[in-house]
Amino acid sequence: MTGNTQEDIYTNLRALARLRFTAQGFNYLPRQSVRSLLSGRKRSRLRGRGLDFDELRHYQPGDDIRNMDWRVTNRTGKPHVRVYTEERDRPVIVVVDQRLPMFFGSIKKMKSVVAAEVAAITAWRVLAVGDRIGAILFNDNAIIEAKPTRNERRVISWLGDLTGMNNDLSIKTRHESNPDALAQALQLLERSIGHDYLVVLISDFYGWNDATLKSLRRMNRHNDIVCSLIYDPLERDISRADELVASDGEFQLKIDPAKQGLGQKFEASIKSSIAHVQGELKRHGIPVLPVDTVVPAADQLRERLGGQRVLQ
Fold first, then answer.
1. Is residue 39 part of a domain?
2. pLDDT, mean over the chain
3. Global pTM?
4. Beta strands 198-203 and 224-231: pairing type?
């Protein structure tokens, strides 16, 4: 990694708290810019008197006469009413991956740090619009659940837990990464939520399997899911590198990607895995938001969820 700072390798609570000042210019609400990734998505509706006009339809017994559209009624000769969408609370859960495969970065930041930043930015944005935010944080051997809340102190508390998980990451660890942890975290989430939640899954999707897909598919029937796919550019273009130097902070190892086609094999495997995950999610109507480790996470969220283009 070049030009990186300590906060690019390990995050801290102060850094995650500072991100609240960048959490603007985007939202996860139903109304989206036409350039937003979520534009055109269906939304849950609560009918009643609200602020947002939803549709015009024939009068039905029990409709509020104050919502009569007299102009259309007079023109058609049949009573019509205006129906409004009423804003309602929508709990949000961020599911954040802090497993060993996330402890990787080639240019700027570790995937694990970017995942933590996306979670924090999402949390601050959700609080800003008045909704509740909770979290499921997981690594290779533990899962922490935080129930949705509007209480800022409780949010800061689980951001502290997230920081702890992030700071525990090290390639010197003696345990192996757990590919089943993703499915286990989603199974816990599935038992915890009801209907009309927004789930923001933040991961590199290591360990993706049928159990993972089945959980997401079941939850997607009555909830909204957005998947933030965290990736490092080198994972997709490693074959072009002349020489790689891997380090655990103490020792270094030089790797030649061209030797025995190692780079091409690794790159093909990564691309195949990502394409498979994206294809399965798209087939079930679950949007995928790619987030790289180079461009600031807030800028990428604004570009993909707010329709604001990032200037390079």
1. no
2. 82
3. 0.76
4. parallel
